[in-house]
Amino acid sequence: MLKDSNYSSNATLLTDDDIGDDHLMTSLETPMRADAFELSAEEKMTRIEHHFREIMLTMGLDLSDDSLKGTPKRVAKMYIQEIFSGLNPKNKPKVALFDNKYGYNEMLVEKDITFYSNCEHHFVPIIGKAHIAYIAKDKVIGLSKLNRVVQYFAKRPQVQERLTMQVAHHLCSILGTDDIAIIVDAHHLCVSSRGVQDVNSSTITAYYGGVFLKEAKKHEFLQYLNLPAKSKVLEVLQS
Ligand SMILES: [Zn+2]
After folding, report:
1. Could you tell me the pLDDT band of residue 239, with boundaries at 50, 70 and 90?
2. CB of 97 closer than 8 Å to CB of 140
3. Is 81 a known active-site residue?
4. I want to staple 56 with a disulfide (CB 3.0 to 4.6 A). Which of 23, 61, 121, 238 is the partner?
5. Is 123 helix (H, G, I), strand (E, B) or coil?
6. Alpha helices for the chain (secondary structure H)
């Protein structure tokens, strides 16, 4: 299990640029202010629209241009209602669980769950696939809910390690089992479109809990995935 303190103690030795380009995270919880939800969604959109207009004006853009004038409002709406909607716990997917009537006790693998997130260091996209395995105890989860849980946590400014852990912890708590494994394979546009400009690399993170800590179960999971040597995400981006 990752410990918060390991990250924060190391992170204090680094500059802001180091933290951004090395994609370090400082805690497993998304860092939120105590007053995060005192403003309504409408109030947040009004503020973001104002500030995004200032950013565009500062860069010298002419906001009287028909193409640009609606952009601050569009960005504000997109931030709150779409790509960062996972910051608000009210948007957490409602997960119905069902009794495991079949007594199915082998692993269930849901693979190639597509998600779009954004790097919290640069606010540019992370595009990836998540693969989840779990072994049901008394309850099973609707399959589409695994996708929704991934997408909820992806819709935050993120770091891939934290996304992986947040999905894992949430699934452990709702399914009442530690027998969960997750692989996340993602392409970070802050690595490809700027900075080191490497279009070929993808980042893989993993979580193994319960029986998946045993090599045999881990191996079985990876075999089900039949992970390709080349990231499918990358093939899409390069086609
Ligand atoms: Zn980044």
Report:
1. low
2. yes
3. no
4. 61
5. coil
6. 4-11, 16-22, 41-58, 71-77, 143-154, 160-175, 189-192, 215-225, 232-238
Active site includes 190? yes
Question: Could you tell me the pTM of the whole model?
Answer: 0.85
Output the CA 152–ligand 1 centroid distance in Å: 19
What would the pLDDT profile of 28-71 be if each residue is shown by its tens digit? 899 999 999 999 999 999 999 999 999 999 999 999 999 999 99
Please indicate whether residue 51 is annotated as part of the active site.
no
Select from 3.30.1130.10, 3.40.50.1820, 3.30.559.10, 2.30.180.10 the CATH code of 97-238: 3.30.1130.10
Same fold, 4-91 and 97-238: no
Give CA–CA dist 155/176, Å, rounded. 24
- Name the DSSP letter for residue 36: T
What spacing in Å lies between the alpha carbon of 124 and ligand 1's midpoint? 7
Please state the domain extents for the chain. 4-91, 97-238
